Amino acid sequence: MRLSSIFAIGAAFMVAAVLCLVVAQFSVTVIEDHSRQSVLEQLDNKGLTWAEVDADGLQVFLGGTAPTEATRFKALSTAGTVVDVARVIDQMLVEDSAVIAPPRFSVEILRNGSGISLIGLVPASTDREELLESIRKASGGDEVADLLDVADYQHPETWDVALEYAVRSLKSLPRTKISVDASRVEITAMTDSPAEKRATEIKLARSVPDDVRLSLNISAPRPVVTPYTLRFVYENDQGRFDACTADTEAARTTILAAAGKLGLKARPDCVIGLGVPSPNWAKAVELSIAALGELGGGSVTFSDADISLNALQGTPQSVFDTVVGKLENTLPDVFALHSTLPPPIDNSAPEVPEFVATLSPEGQVQIRGRVGSEFMRDTVDSFAKARFSSDGVHTTARIAEELPDDWPLRVLAGLEALSYLSNGAVTITPDLVDVTGNTGRKDASTMIAGFLSDKLGDGDQFEINVKYKKALDPVLGLPTPDECEALIAQVQVERKISFEPGSSNMDANGAAIMDDIAEILKKCGDIRMEIGGHTDSQGREEMNQQLSQKRARAILDELRARRVLTSSINSKGYGESTPIADNKTDAGREANRRIEFKLIRPEPIKDEQTTLESLADPVEEGAQTPAETQPETEEDSTDEQN
User: Fold this and answer.
1) Is 201 helix (H, G, I), strand (E, B) or coil?
2) Which of 153, 223, 324, 473 could hold 440 in an S-S bridge, CB 3.0 to 4.6 Å?
């Protein structure tokens, strides 16, 4: 009996122990699962999905491969917010560091009257002495302070091209800051005049390499405008500016907004300049343009503080009086208004005298019409020859009586206006000076309006219908580098540069061809070009190569003799290496003996995004035109047959 009770008690203890073990095991499992799940959810919420979590009792194990040491530490910290930090066991790995990204190579070139300073970081492969020497040559011998650091890393392929372009740009920039990196050149500079600013911008944009972006910030002092001129014409429900001047950006905006209400279509070239007669210039212009709208048409001309308002013929007298009276009372102080209402047309009036001068695109001037005396005719003829050319003026004007007293002044003012045009005509009657034509000067209308309003009396009417054409602009009308290459190729389509057999001396026809090519290159400006000499395959290869080089060099010398700037043109002999036809035939060999003018273009870049480029700032677009070009081929050369 005692034995059975002992067994019963022992069994009870055994069952209790088993139950305790099961409960303990279950509790541990619950704690492990809860800890693992809670830590895993928190890591996922932080974006640390690469981390792996396991638990053993109260301990939490973190595994996986962290991208960086910082993210590994972040994972530990995140787990520590869920469970006690002492329970977290770190078993994480960290990825091997990738190849260290190269630093951002860049150079600041600062130039002023005291010299040039170089600041920045350049690759160790950069030839510092060569760089400094090229800068001295480009700047005309300025002192160069070298404050550059170096780093021994591989640099982007466009680095050398961008740096070379920046150095070349110093030739035309006496005061500048040039910022260079592998994909962008940013130029900040000052010029002495708006015309120089415009020419500099065009020159820099024309020569920028294809794979480099250019950002230009060229400034110039505001011009002094004398007299301060503005002329607005409103007719047929459309408005236009013959001249537009403002003293501030805000004033220009106000003036253009007023003109826009009267049908102004194209945005004019409204000059912001010094010399405004009153700070209320924009207000006076705005009121005067609005008055034209109330009149239904006419013109208003400002010459400093003098305003001439001319209504259209046929405007009712009552409307004219009301509008002019209102304008006189609202104009700011200083401004003086002169208003004119043309009389009705009188069909019984005698024939109106006129004077006409026309200018052809070739520069020929024809003068006809009426002048008051023999002396006046001689004066007009002399004045025209002084303004144009002695050989290009032809006068057939006749002497007539009863001309207005101011006729000589009007005639000479008209000829002066004509001198601003590339081609056109000026017609003068007692009531009107009418100037029409084409010009390559953007400010021609402004200049004509300025001196006509200054020279003619108050109330005298004039019309200006002058069109600016880019092709006539002495700067913008220049051909692009690609157009230059095509023009030179066209010259050689029907006429070929040929040489005496086995010689680098051109034949008799070569001089005329070189004259035409030189004229083209003079218009093209500073473009990079290669003159390539080529031969057929007759003779020894080495001799053909040497002959082709001599011929290419001879062409370069011919250009120099014709005063063509050749600093950016080189010569190269290719011998028989690049045939364009079959050397087995006479015609093929003749074709292969040639001189070629080719643009030098940068080598194309295989564009793979690098870490450096991905971190770089976005690049601004600058005035961009293609420029530098890639070497190609050259002129004639061969053996005795060449």
Assistant:
1) helix
2) 473
446-477 residue pLDDT tens: 888 888 888 887 667 888 998 888 777 766 66
- Per the listing, tokens 């905006």 go with 253
499 - beta bridge partners?
A: 506
- Sign, CA torsion 128/132/135/137: negative
pTM (two decimals): 0.53
Determine the CATH number of domain 229-340.
Answer: 3.40.1520.20
**CATH for the stretch 22-94:** 3.30.1340.30
Determine how many CB atoms are found less than 10 A away from the CB of residue 257: 13
How far is 150 from 133, CA to CA, in rounded Å?
18
Q: What is the pLDDT of residues 598-629, one digit of tens each?
A: 988 765 544 444 333 443 444 443 344 333 33
Instruction: Identify the CATH assignment for 355-472 out of 2.120.10.10, 3.40.1520.20, 3.40.47.10, 3.40.50.720.
Output: 3.40.1520.20
As a whole number of angstroms, the distance between CA 581 and CA 579 comes to 6
Q: Are 359 and 424 in contact (CB under 8 A)?
A: yes
Q: What is the CATH number of domain 481-615?
A: 3.30.1330.60
Name the strand (E) or helix (H) holding 21.
helix 2-45
Distance of alpha carbon 382 from alpha carbon 408, whole angstroms? 13
Helix (H) or strand (E) holding 429: strand 423-429
